Amino acid sequence: MKTKPIKAQKLRPLEKISSGISGLDEITGGGLPKGRPTLVCGNAGCGKTLMAMEFLVRGATDHNEPGVFMSFEENEEELTRNVASLGFDLDALSAKKKIVLDHVRIERSEIEETGEYDLEGLFIRLNYAIESIGAKRVVLDTIEGLFAGLPNHSILRSELRRLFRWLKDKGMSAIITAERGDGLLTRHGLEEYVADCVILLDHRVNEQLSTRRLRVVKYRGSVHGTNEYPFLISKDGFSVLPVTSMGLDHPASSERISSGVERLDTMLGGKGFFRGSSILVSGTAGTGKSSIAAAFVDAAARRGERALYFAFEESQNQILRNMKSISLDLEPWVKKGLLQFHASRPSLCGLEMHLLNIYDAVKKFKPSVVVMDPVTNLISVGTEIEVRSMLTRLIDFFKTEQVTAVFPSLTSGDTSISSPSEVGIASLMDVWVLLRNIESAGERNRGLYILKARGMEHSNQIREVILSNHGIGLVDVYAGPESVLTGSARIEQAGREKADIDRRKALMERREREIARERGVIAAQVAVLNAGLEAKIDEFNQEITDETLLDQVNAKSRVNLAANRQADVEPKIKATNGHNRVEAVRK
Amino acid sequence: MSTPTKVKKSNLAPPSEQRWELRLYVAGQTSKSVTAFANLKKICAEYITGKYTIEVVDLVTNPTLAKGDQILAVPTLVRKLPSPIRKILGDLSDTQRVLVGLDLREMEKQSHES
Description:
The complex is a heterodimer. By secondary structure, chain A is an alpha/beta fold. Chain A folds into 3 domains: about 25-105 and about 120-240, Rossmann fold (3-Layer(aba) Sandwich); about 255-475, P-loop containing nucleotide triphosphate hydrolases (Rossmann fold), CATH 3.40.50.300; about 490-585. Chain A has 16 helices and 25 strands. In chain A, the strands form 5 sheets. Chain A has a 9-stranded mixed sheet, sandwiched between helices. In chain A, strands 17-16-18-19-15-20-21-22-23 form a 9-stranded mixed sheet, with helices on both faces. In chain A, strands 1-2 form a two-stranded antiparallel ribbon. Chain A starts with 15 loop residues before the first strand and ends with a helix. Mean pLDDT of chain A is about 80; it is low at about 1-5. Chain B is α+β, with helices and mostly antiparallel strands. The model of chain B is unreliable at about 1-15 (pLDDT under 50). Chain B has helices at about 30-45, 65-70, 95-100, 105-114, and strands at about 20-25, 50-60, 75-80, 85-90. In chain B, β1, α1 and β2 (about 50-60) form a beta-alpha-beta unit.
């Protein structure tokens, strides 16, 4: 009896129905096979019953497909109470004839077998339940209960085979749950009969943290994700988190939003980050990562956008108080409902739970900006691969929702390039702002630079971050010929340079003054010489005049004398005398 | 269930006062149900003559009744009285096992000893 009874009936694509379990439809490409049984197997306590129940409840409430839950383990009351914590009101659904719960109790001790029998009674019960509400979905939980109750397994096997066939013929989309066996998917090899779709649930504990995983082992006639997907059972039910099923097809906005730090915007081509991008702000302790994140949140709130702040290190009040010290008052935004904090210890729950909480919070609050401070704290919760896959999902999710996310990331050590995990994260990020301590001359200063910024022009310069009660400031570091200086060394160097300039300026001024003075002196000397020259010229002119006069006089006298004495005279002596005589004559 | 059932105090009441209330669940007139009914009548007539009632329930016509006695398999013989409830699956072809199931072992012994 090794024949496989189930064969594809017609050559058309397999019809699927929504499982109602978030994430599972994505993995299976639309849901569980319609009108066929699906086997869900797993160890005790891994969530088989809940998964089956959610399948039924979601079908009844969301898809108008009533369902029958046939339980071989828990009775109706227990079931109702157990799933009430997930918000499923089975009593109400039963009253509305959406769901029938049927508890099949098999007491091994009161059963005796004599001869041939079949399970027609079960068929009749199930059929009656199905007919009574027009059910489209059926759950048999857990089929192992039958094996425990009925001694004759060969009858049971053939009857189960008939049952599955019968369910298929009735067009019931069914989930059959089964216990996991040693080396087998199910303890009694049921996968042989129910072979259309087999889902394996697993629950394992790694370093004291439990993770639940789901794998679609087999899905006849359909492509499906083959990986192990983490899943969660939370207050909203069962949810699978498909990591890799998400396509890279999220929208890419070209809108730019401010980082909240003016100079940082300038460094990013003057406009800030792209909306919907992921920003890694990494640095060692105390380099101002949270402050930059807070400034970003503040800027978003100023624009009237919502911001969500996941804090894994500090409480809300602590952050509010601390940010006030750099004049970032976030409290009004909290009061206005623009800013929400979610503070929790990373070790509070597993990664998947964190992820789910983040999903939930983002879906509910619909922020445009999210901060995860610090994202590296999550690494303590899982292994590096897990964290990375979680972050991939998270970033994908944020991008699909067009949420701009800032991930402050704590790096250890003083090296500027960073731990391997950070490198792993960094490749997922669009912008990487690196903060580092610059130690020199007996002090520590904060340096900032942009390591990468996808799709935008960005500065390659190191800036110094100054956190003061005026907020966050970025200033140019001193990058002179001697070295790169920051902090007081930068201020000192700047002072020194200014003094130097002043000194040289004074020197020039003095030189100028000296020249001016010299010019004055020379000008004065020139004036004196000119005056002397003038005087000489004057004198000379006078002499010429005198001489002419004398000559005239002499000439006249000579004429006269000659006329009088008719004698020869020494002309030169006479000239002198003649001059005196002229003077005298004038007087 | 291979070890002989011990005699219970309640079963030590005089056999004449005890009544067996039996209910046979069947699903339609199949060969198995017919055989089961025939076997049952034979056993009852032999061991508890006149001290029993047999009610036959056909689940095809009364599907709701399957839930009450938690019937899965057919045919199923349910011993309603004397308590506790016992269920015997199958066509009752193995008389020894039916006797064990119905706690009639003692009766059998007694009848042989007397």
